[in-house]
Amino acid sequence: MGSRSLPWKLPVLLLCTIVAVSLSATGCGKKTVNPSASVYKIGAVLSLSGPAAPLGQPEQNSLLMLEEQLNAGEGVNGHKVQFIIEDDQSNPANAAAAITKLINQEGVSAMIGSSSTGATLAMVPVAEAAKVTLVCCAAGTAITKPVKKYIFRTPPTDSMAIDKVLAYLKTNLKIKQIAILHDANAYGTGGATELAAKAPTAGIQVVANESYGSTDTDMTAQLTKIQQTPAQALVVWGTNPGPASIAKNMQQLAMKIPFIGSNGIANKTFITLAGTAANGVSFPGGRMLIPASIPTGTEWRNAVDKFTADYKAKYGKDADTFAAHGWDAGTILTTAMKTAGTDKTMIQSTVQATKGLVGIDGIYNYSATNHDGLTVSDLMMIQIQNGAWVQIK
Amino acid sequence: MSTNDSRQVRLLWGSVAVVAAIVVATLIDKGSIGLQLILSGLTVGSIYALVAMGFSVIYSTTRVINFAQGGFSMLGGMLMYTFSVQAHLPPWLGLILAVAIVTAFGAGFERAAINPLKDKSVITIIIITIGLSIFMTAVAKWIWGTDPVKIAAFTGEKPLRFLGASLVPQSLWVFGFTLLAVVLVFAFFNRTLLGKGMRAAADNPDAASLVGVSSSTSSLVAWTLAAGLGAAAGVVIAPINFAQYSAGTTLGLKGFSAAVLGGLGSAPGAVVGGLVLGVLETITASYLPSGYKDAVAFLILILVLLVRPQGLLGKPESVKV
After folding, report:
1. Residue A182 in contact with partner chain B when CB distance is under 8 A
2. Domains and CATH numbers, chain B
3. Contact A252/B291, CB-based, under 8 Å?
4. By mean pLDDT, which of A166-170, A242-246, B30-34, B106-110 is the weakest?
5. Least CA distance to A253: which residue of chain B?
6. Of A211, A260, A345, B261, which has the fewest beta carbons less than 10 angstroms from its beta carbon?
7. In chain B, which residues have their Cβ closer than 8 Å to the Cβ of A224?
8. What domains does chain A contain, in order, with CATH numbers?
9. Residue spans of alpha helices (H) in chain B
């Protein structure tokens, strides 16, 4: 009986061997990119030059790192992904032109960008008209208020940062009177206006509201004015280098009131520029800045640890919150495209239905009425002590 | 003295009196705060003065307004960052290297782009300097990125206090360097043969070349001097201002206003213009919303060009027909 079955067992054995060898050759169970599958194109308009470049450059770094990691692995459902990145030079008109080009000429399935509110707002009508999902990395309230069908965001909004600051002033510092010193640009003025509007609800009176030019280097005039008021704390709303100059000026004038900054100084550059004057400064920032503030063993903590290690290894510098915004925007879209493919309508509905997606900035939950993704609890107050960030409990 | 001359003199003393009145009124109104404002204004003003001097040097010898002057200061500051922070060289060596490189660059640019076009109109050359300014900004961004950088102050950051006002030690370095620069530049252009010859070449190139002063050489010397001065200014300013790739434009604009106010072509005029501009700006920022501060610089520019185009200390331009 054995010798009769051997002749037809041989081809079966041979077939099994061939199958086994070919399976192990491709990595049994491990999926890789299918070279013959179409490339998924995602457009990105970021501010790589101009005033918002410190925001756009890390975002670009993250997207390129994400692209590299995805394409080395299984891609997006077996498809290679390509981020086509354009520089809007921090100029809204350029942003609108760039997104039009990416949608019409490059045929991208989804969009990311821009780094700042002004440029993003210029892109919104183009994305809406073309029915292309746009995930932005800017924090301006007007982008998602009112909610627009195709527009989503990754960073915590400026409103959330303001709520965090007011809660800190009211509950931790128990302060009743503050002075505001803001950058005269859209970011600073918008933040100061909202801060002044919300302060009375927190039981805080704004006794001074001064501004400075984005390129000014000496704010002693404004600070001496503030010294004359009964302000118990100074809230500075702007991005580098203004707040660093202000911190140094305050040290020069021996001003003792606490300096509370905005999410605009949530980076190491502020500490480098301000030197010893940075100590004692507090600001609202994402938890990824102090990974230890996220409970160990959680998916979020693991994601943050891996991201910061990979970013440091690839680029030689620490990842900041802007890098996180870029990474999360890319992750949200590529995750959606795993099920939606290049179907633009499906991409929108999949992104909108996202729940519990673990990013670096936080855990994202979108809905038909909420295109912001994160909440105020994804921010924490951080204080600079001895040149390092310390979480304020 | 003709009526026009005496009118000019009255205008000059009138403007001096206006500025003095504003300063005194601020001191009375604000007391020791006023003194702080004046000191801050003088610090900012000296920065403008240093850039303005660079404008004066090139203008007085070639009638060209070099809109890349701010860029030389920016480059000086950025190179100082590379040498003293990134390469950990001692500050004095960093200063020498930064100034040397920018000076060589300025001289090279003059030979490559300005000298071949010396027969073209002044407007053409001014436009070329604008191109240089854009080029320097782009190169700086490519090399150093967009972040502002920190350079250590020469003698520390501990503020000096007197009479209720304070000053950072680096401000004294800026004042000191401004004084040194204006003395050297003034002495060069008014006491040395080469300097006087260069000024003569600007007024009348043909006559000057007949007596052995070539306008080509004087252009080269002017650009070399202005580049070196600008770079050194940039190094001294950088601990206060934070060097950044985009700093050239702002510095250039304010420095130009200061130079026009004080009199284009006059080194002491550049200092007077810079200090007055800085003080007026700071006083304005304390009385009006700070946004009006920048408007002051340009308002002054318009007023000066309308009323007394040669500035506070300049001589009126007259063309013999």
Report:
1. no
2. 3-307 (1.10.3470)
3. no
4. B30-34
5. B166
6. A345
7. 30, 33, 36-37, 286
8. 40-157+296-376 (3.40.50.2300), 159-290+380-391 (3.40.50.2300)
9. 3-30, 32-62, 69-80, 91-109, 122-144, 169-191, 193-203, 205-210, 215-241, 247-262, 267-287, 292-307
